[in-house]
Amino acid sequence: MNSELRLAVFSPNQKAWNGECVFATAPQFDSSLKKNVAFIKKIRSGIGRDNQESLLQGIKSLSLEKYMNELLSTLSEALTRVSKGSDVPGVVNVVSALHQRFSTSFTPYLMLYFAHFVAPINESKLSEKDKTDHFSKMKNMVRLLMEFSLCGLFTNVEAMPSDQLPRYMSSIKAKDCLMIVLCLREVLRGNSDGTQSLELATQFLKRFSEYITGPNEFLEEKSRVLLQKLMFKYADYTVNTTEDLYRKFSAKKSRAETKALKTGKVEEGTEDEIGELKLVVEKFQAFCELAADILGTRKPELVEYETKKLESGTKVEIVTNSATKPDSLWGSDDMTKFYEEFPDLSTLIPKSIMTDEEDDESKGTRMSELLLRLDDALTAKDVDEVALDYWKWGLNNKSSQNRMFVHLSRSKEMFKFRNYARFLKINQKYIPELIEKIIEQQDKNLRFQIHNNAMTEKVIYFFGEMVNFKLIPVYVLFHKVRLLILNIDVSHNIDILSMLFDTCGRRLLYDDEYREHTEELIRLLSNLKSTRKFKMVDSQAVKLFLLSLYPTSVKRVAVVDIRTDEEKFMEFLVRRGLTSSNYRTILAVLKRMDLTEKINVKQIEHIFSTPEDVNYSLIPEFAKVLQQLGTLDNLGHLRVHVIDNLFESITVGLENNDYRQNRVRLAQVRYLTELFNLKMLKANLLLSTLYRIVCFGHQNYYPTKGEMCLNDPAESYFRVRLVCELLNHLRFDRKMGKGVRNELALFYLFFDYYLWTKVQPLPMEITGKLEEMWQSMEVDGEKFRRSESYCEAIERLKAAMKAKGVEEAAEEAVEGADEEEEEEEVEEEDDDEDRRFDKGIADTESESESETEEDDDEEEEEEEEEEEEEEAEAEREDDVDNESENDETNSELTYEEKEEERFNEDLDRELGRLRLEAMASIKNSSLGTSGAARVAGVPQESLSNPTSILSKANGSTTSKTSSFTFVSRAGKKIEARGLQLPEDAKFTRNYTEQTDKAKREKEAIKSIVLICLIDTMSTLNVLRYVALGTGVLYGFVHVQSLKKNGKKQVEKYQFEQKQKLVEEAKNQWNLQHPVKSEGSVKLDLDRKDLDWAAVVDQAIKTLDSAKA
C-alpha cells in the first residue's frame, strides 16, 4: 500500500476519533435480519479487492448496530487470513469505513483483539500444524497492525478499555505511546527459538523501514523514535545471537570432522544437525546484513572470529625452505587442464538423453569400444570425448555401470587410472552410485593393506588419482593417512604412505581444502618419530619421507667472510699448512707479519687458543711455534692469554661434559702438556689442573665411592683418559724441584684412590692406558705400584698426607720460635749476649728461608740453564731468524712479563693454600672416636711443643742447658753451629715460659674439642653400625640380583657401547682434522728478490680453492 492511499484515509480517520461524522451513509438504515446476517457472512468469507465495493455499500445501508459483537469477532477472524498484498488496501478501506461510522464503539474493541492476539501463548500444547497456522496469522496481524497505525486507525493504548488490556500492556505506565510499539516488542521476544520472530522482523523492516528511519506525517515522532530504538536493540541481539550460533556451528562441525577423520565415516544424523544449524545461522546473518544496510548497525564478526580462533590456539607450523605453495599446483598447463578443468555435461548433452537407458545387447559392443578408448586416452580431450559418447550413445544403464566397475577394478596398468578418475569426475553428478561403489571398494582394500603385511600398488595409485580429482571424501582420505601414521611401524605402511604422497602429495600439501589436515598429520608423524622407538630401518624411512615432503632449499644463504686477507692467510698457514718439518718456516712467516695491527694479534691469539683445529699429531709443533712467538716484543702477552683461554676451555669442558666434545678436550689436555714440557707453564699450575680434572663437580670438591656426580658418573672413565693423556706425554727428563716431585707423588696416590671410586673392573682400554702411565712414574726412585683394594688406596693416601703434615708442623714450630725471639730482642736491647743470640736466631730464620730459597734458586738456575740450552739449539737449527732470536733471548723482561710473573706467584700461593686446607680437612676427619690419639701420625705433644721438634732436629736432649742453632750466611755459603744456653738465662727462661703457656692453652682447647667430638662420634658410631648393616644386606641382595641378571653380559655390553662411542669420536676427529700432507711448499726467505705479496696472494688462492 502506497503513501497516497494511506494519506487519503488518514485525515478522515483522525476526525472520526475526534467525534466528527465524516462517513456518508444512506438516509435510512436497513435493519432486516437477513441482510445484516448476509453482510456478516460476506465478511467471514474474506475481505479483499473483489468484495470491497459490496462491503462498503453494506456499511452505508445496513444498521449493524445490533450485530456489533458478531461483526467484531467475524471481522477479527477474517483479518487474520489476509495474506495477499493486493487485498490490504481493500481491508484498510473497509475497516476505515467501519471506524468512521461507529468510531469509539467499534475501533477500541478491534484494537483490543489485536492486542490479545499477539500476546504470548503456551506453544507446548500446540501441534506442529497449529504452530504453523498461528505463525502465519501472526505475520498477517503484524502487517495490518502497522498499516492501521499508519492510516490513523489504531492509536495509543489509552483508546482501549483499561480493564480488558493484556498483562504486557497493563503494566506499562506510559499509555500515550502507539499500540504498535508494545505489540511489536512482544512479538519479537515471544518466539522460543528466535527464527519466527526473525522472519517477522525481516518483513517488517523491508515494508516499513522508511517510516521508522526518518520523520514522516503518519507517525508521531515519539512513537517513531521508540520503534527505531526497538529495532536497534533487536538488531544488536541478533548480531550476538548470530556470533554464538556460528561458534556452536563451527564447534559442532569441527567435532564432526575430527570424529569422521578418526573413524573414517560420518555419524548418522550429524550432517542433518549441522545442516539445520547452518540454515539458522544463514537466516540470522541475512537479517543482520539487512539491519546493517537499513539501520546502520554492526555486522557479525564471523570471519574475524575464525582468525582470532586460529591465532589464540596453540598451533605449530612446519616452516621449511621449500614448503611454499608453487605458482602452479601441477607444474604445467597441460597437467592443470587435466586435473582442474572439466566439461559441463548439462550444457553439452540434452536432458532427455541423460536418463537411465534400457539394457540392450547391441550396446554391449559400443561399451567395449568405449572402455578401450578410455584406456588408450592420452589427453584430457580424449577422456572428455569418451564421456560425451557415453551419454550420446545411451550407454548409461545398470549393466554398463557394473561392467565399468569390473573393468576399473581389474585393470593393472597404473597409467590408466588417471583417465578413469577424470571420467568419474566428469560424471560425478550423474552416476553417484558407481562412484560410491568404487570408493567403498578402494577404502576396503586400502584398510586391509594398512592392518596386514600386504601392499598392492595399483590400489594405492588409483586411490591417489581419485584424491587428485577430489572424488574421495576428506574424512575417508585422512582417516587412511592417520591410520598409516599411527601404524607406521607395521611392515609396508611407510611405503604405502610414501607412494600415496608421490601420487597425490601436491594436492594434499598445497590445496587449501587439504593443507591444514595434512600439516597436522605430518606434525603427528614428527612427534611419533621423536617419542616412539622405531627400528633403524623404519626411522631412516620416516626421516627420508619427511625430507621428501619438505626438502632443504638448494639455495643457501651466502656467508660473508669479513676477515682480512692477513687473517685468512694466517689461519690457512697454521691450521692447514703446518707439518712436522716446516713449523720453523711458518714461524718465520708469522714473525714477518705486521704485528702492530691489533686485528692480526687477536687472530694469532685465537688460532693458538684452539688446538682442536690442528691435527692431533702436530700439537707439539703447534706449541713450539707459540713458544717462539711469545718471545717477540709485540706478543709478550700472547702466552698469558693463550694459557688463560686454555684453562677456561678445559673448565667449560668439565662443566658441559658433552661426549661430542671429547676429542676437543683431549686435544686441549695434550696442548697443555706440551706447554709444560716447553717450560711455558709452571708445575703448580699443572698440578692444580690435574686436581681440577679429577675433583671438579664432586661434593666438597672430593670424589668418594658411591657418590652420585652428574658431571663424572662412576661408570664414566673419560676423566681417567684425560689424566692419562696428560701424564703419558709428560717429559720427566725436565728437572723438577723436590717439592714438585713430592706433590706429583702425592697426586699419583690420590689418582690411584680416584680410580677405586669408579665401577670395577676397569675397561680393558683404560687398563692399557693406566699400565702405560704407571711405567713412566717413579716415587722415591721406584716404579709406582698401584693399590690392591679401595681400603689400601685410602691407607696409602692417609700415610702420605700424614707424612706431609709432620713436615708442615715442624716448619710452623720453627716460625713460632723465631717470632718469640724477635720479641725478646726488642725487649732486651741492652743485653749483649741476648742480642748476640737474637742475631743468631734472626740468622737462623734467614738461613731457614735461604735454604728453601736456595732450593728454589737451584731449580730456577737449572731450568734457566735448560732453557738457554734449548734456545741455543733452536738458534742453531733456525737459519731464518738466528740473530733476532739471540737478541730476544738476551733481552730483559718486559713490563707485561713482570706482571705475569707476579700474577703467577700469587696464583701459586693461593693454590698451595687451598691444597693445604683440603689436606688438613681430610687429616682432621681421620681422628678416632677416643679423641686422644694422633693428628696425621704426629704425636699431639710434638705438635704443641716446638722445642721438642727443634731438639730432635738438632739431635740433642733437654738438660740444664738448652740447645740452639746459630746460622750465618755469606753469599751462597751457609754456616751453622750449635749453641748451648743455660736454663737460668733470661732468653731461655722467657722462651720456655712462652712455650709452656702455649702448650697449656692448646691442651685446654683440645680437651674441649675432644669432649664434643666424643659425644658426636658416639652418635655417629651407632649410625655407622646401622648403615653398615643396611649396606651389607643391600650388598648381598645386589650381588645376587647381578648374578641372576648376568653381570658379565651387562659389563660386556657397556664396554662395547663405549668402544663404539670412542670409535665414532675418533672418526669424527679424523673427519674434522685430516692429516696434513707433508709436501708443503717451502719458502726460501733469504732470497732478496722474494715477492712477498705474490706469496700471500698464492696462499689465499689456495685457501679459497680448498674451501671450494
From TrEMBL:
Record GO biological process: nuclear-transcribed mRNA catabolic process, nonsense-mediated decay; proton motive force-driven ATP synthesis
Organism: Eeniella nana
Pfam families, sorted: ATP-synt_E, MIF4G, Upf2
Keyword vocabulary terms for this entry: ATP synthesis, CF(0), Cytoplasm, Hydrogen ion transport, Ion transport, Membrane, Mitochondrion, Mitochondrion inner membrane, Transport
Family label: Belongs to the ATPase e subunit family.
Localization annotation: Cytoplasm; Mitochondrion inner membrane
Ranges that cross the membrane: none
Region of interest called Disordered, as start-end residue ranges on this chain: 807-904
Annotated ranges, domain MIF4G: 33-262, 368-555, 567-788
Protein name: MIF4G domain-containing protein
Main location: cytoplasm
Gene Ontology MF annotations: proton transmembrane transporter activity; RNA binding
Acidic residues bias (residue ranges): 808-833, 844-890
A Gene Ontology cellular-component term: exon-exon junction complex
